[in-house]
Amino acid sequence: MTRPWLPWARSAARPGPAPAGQPPAGPARPLLEVRDLTVHHGQLRALTEVSLTVHPGEVYAIIGANGAGKSTLLRTLAGLHAPTSGTVVFDGADVTGLRPDRRVAAGIAMVPEGRRLFGSLTVEENLLVGAAYARPGPWSPERVYELFGWMRERRGQRAALLSGGEQQAVAIGRALVANPRLLLLDELSLGLAPAVVRRIYGMLPDLLAAGLTVLLVEQDVSQALRVATHVHCLLEGRTTLRGAPGELTAAAIEDAYFGLARANGQGTRGGPR
Ligand SMILES: Nc1ncnc2c1ncn2[C@@H]1O[C@H](COP(=O)(O)OP(=O)(O)OP(=O)(O)O)[C@@H](O)[C@H]1O
Ligand SMILES: [Mg+2]
Predict the structure, then answer these.
(1) Which of 69, 78, 119, 266 is deepest in the core (most CB within 10 A)?
(2) Phi and psi (nearest 5°) for 100?
(3) Residue 219 CA to ligand 1 centre (angstroms)
């Protein structure tokens, strides 16, 4: 499988050799560490002891069928759900109890499932909403217009009048103007035509080059495998598989995704990442 732009993904987890006279660099500190996260919606347990580690520069993809708990995981990381147990550590600090706005200020921004734009506001007003708790940094509406060329001349248009793909781009822009370090993307491809999905995902190399780390949810496994440095499969709220795309066979992914009991030893089940 070709992953044409994977070389763009920087992995600080695998640093090069240390300069002469200096001790070898250890693995970079993870940007995000999720430990044993259990989350309930009322009586329903949506996530059970999910753990993962995301290093700077990675594109970490969560895959899984409907109801697997993917959005619950992202929303919990964004501070929109309180976990029943477990911890979320961001850049070395425990953020488990932090309010959503504080997480944005710390550098976590989310593009929610279904975009959730303010339809009666203009494109630019939607972007400015995202800047409300922004960290200082390079992203501004102007920079978003550079990323998505068509957007500048339509910045005065109401968001409700945009196509699905255009709305997705605005939702991404709204997250970017918060100047996040970690971008959470929930189902970018939902409801979009394949060509539009390709265009939307086409902006990922620019985001990585700008220093972002990406944790994305994707139901389309092929799409996830094309872009990810690491894949993590959830099934009914539990981790069933994780590993680098190149390490995983299609059969192992299928088993993990659908919950088929076929022991084939591929990937890492219950390992540290
Ligand atoms: N606000 C809520 N209240 C009650 N149950 C919820 C809520 N949100 C999600 N759930 C339930 O939690 C489980 C996980 O849902 P979640 O939306 O996280 O899954 P998902 O993997 O994102 O699914 P999809 O691919 O359909 O988006 C499902 O059983 C769902 O019905
Ligand atoms: Mg979802």
Answers:
(1) 69
(2) -55, -45
(3) 13
Pairing of strands 238-243, 230-235: antiparallel
Q: Whose CA is nearest to atom 26 of ligand 1?
A: 66
Ligand 1 centre from 36 Cα, in Å? 19
Which residues have a Cβ under 8 Å from the Cβ of 164 and sit 6 or more positions away?
A: 115, 191, 192, 196
Rounded to whole angstroms, the Cα distance separating 40 from 169 reads: 31
Three-state DSSP state, 196: helix
What is the rounded CA–CA span in Å between residue 131 and residue 270?
38
**Helical (H) or strand (E) element with 175:** helix 164-176
Q: Tell me, in angstroms, the distance from the centre of ligand 1 to residue 70's CA.
A: 8
Distance 41 CA to ligand 1 centre (A): 8
Residue whose structure tokens are 């499932």: 113
Of 175, 126, 173, 185, which is closest to residue 145 (Cα–Cα)?
173
Confidence at residue 1, expressed as pLDDT on a 0 to 100 scale = 40
Q: Using CA atoms in the order 151, 143, 159, 195, what is the torsion angle rounded to 10 degrees? A: 60
Pocket test for ligand 1, best of 40, 41, 45, 189 (most atoms within 8 A of CB): 41
Contact status, residue 175 vs residue 103, Cβ threshold 8 Å: no
Stretches in the chain below the pLDDT threshold 50: 1-19, 262-273
CA dist., res. 270 & res. 50, Å (int):
9
Nearest CA to ligand 1 atom 17: 71
Q: How far apart are CA 204 and CA 159, in angstroms?
A: 22
